[in-house]
Amino acid sequence: MPPAPFESPLRTTPQRVAILNALSAAEAFLTAQEIHDRLRADGKRVGLATVYRTLQALASTGVLDVLRNDDGEAIYRRCATPDHHHHLVCRSCGQSVEIASDAVETWADRTARRNGYTSVTHTVEVYGLCRGCS
Ligand SMILES: [Zn+2]
Ligand SMILES: [Zn+2]
Ligand SMILES: [Zn+2]
Prior knowledge:
With 134 residues, the protein is α+β, with helices and mostly antiparallel strands. Helix content is 35%, strand content 17%. A three-stranded antiparallel β-sheet has the order 1-3-2. Residues 90, 92-93, 95, 129-130, 132-133 line the site of one zinc ion (ZN).
């Protein structure tokens, strides 16, 4: 078998474009299944396995933010900013707000330094119920 052709992470395919468009229209973090449902509602014929694969590829390039919901399932969103940020996420409907917090950044840096850790990263998300779901 010939070797698989090199696949650039940002190569444009119709599936990728459709998935990014579906996510751009969403204010919420969505599961792969929910994204698949939206594509089908739009008349796009994309298999669920392809949606999973494409989401993983996009998330690995940093184009998408990926979190875990309460069930441990991956949820995806295309965020407005590529810069480091955190999220306030509704655990019922997935609606989310991007948040920045100097207090969190300072605390993480200081905690790491005090314990002699370098090359530190962190993930901080705040989960709750949005206005509509409360
Ligand atoms: Zn984000
Ligand atoms: Zn909600
Ligand atoms: Zn941070």
